[in-house]
Design goal:
With about 180 residues, this protein is α/β, with parallel strands linked by helices. The protein contains six helices and five strands. The longest helix has 21 residues, at about 155-175. The protein starts with a helix and ends in a 6-residue tail after the last helix.
Length: about 180
């Protein structure tokens, strides 16, 4: 199940020198994803949406939906690399465990899709997108909108968060490959 946001965003013709990254904001009920391209220093959105799983669906089938949809996204948009936010430990241990399982399934889907997977802390994502590691959700969403030349902030927040992860990766990966530390 997907929202309608992916159908209103433009597709992008692949150009020489273009890098395409899939950003994932993992969860069990909602998984945010965004495919963002960069050519030179110009960022472009290919798709930004969420995968939702019904609350009443058995947990193994919810994980299966996440795995299958991410595989379809990889096949459709053909990103060259992927990034995911590191797990933020919730106060509720049960929530942290289920999100960790969903994160593992997402990582498996990315790896099986032939993608290298980079991981970034929430602070690194905020720093890369807003310039401030303590930025609030609204600030991150607005910077995603500005950096990707969108008319509105992607909704829900999980989609905007996934776009922020992709943007972070597209900016950070070249530095990582040159040996610069990220923390």
């Amino acid at each position: 199940m997907m929202s309608d946001m992916s159908s209103v965003l433009p597709t992008i013709d692949k150009q020489p020198g273009m890098r395409i990254a899939l950003g994932v904001d993992p969860g069990t009920a909602i998984v945010g994803y965004a495919v963002v391209a960069i050519t030179g220093s110009e960022l472009s959105m290919m798709v930004c949406d969420v995968i939702t799983t019904p609350a009443g669906m058995p947990f193994p089938q919810r994980l299966q939906v996440i795995y299958k949809r991410l595989g379809e996204i990889i096949t459709t948009y053909q990103p060259q690399e992927a990034a995911m936010e590191e797990l933020f430990f919730a106060k509720n241990a049960r929530t942290a465990i289920s999100v960790g399982q969903a994160r593992g399934v997402a990582m498996l889907a990315l790896a099986n899709g032939g993608l290298s997977v980079a991981e970034y802390t929430p602070m690194q994502v905020k720093q890369a997108v807003t310039g401030y590691g303590g930025a609030k959700k609204e600030q991150i969403g607005e910077m995603v909108r500005i950096l990707l030349h969108l008319k509105a902030v992607p909704r829900p927040d999980d989609a905007a968060d996934a776009a922020a992860v992709a943007i972070c990766h597209l900016h950070m990966a070249p530095m990582l490959s040159m040996g610069y530390p990220t923390r």
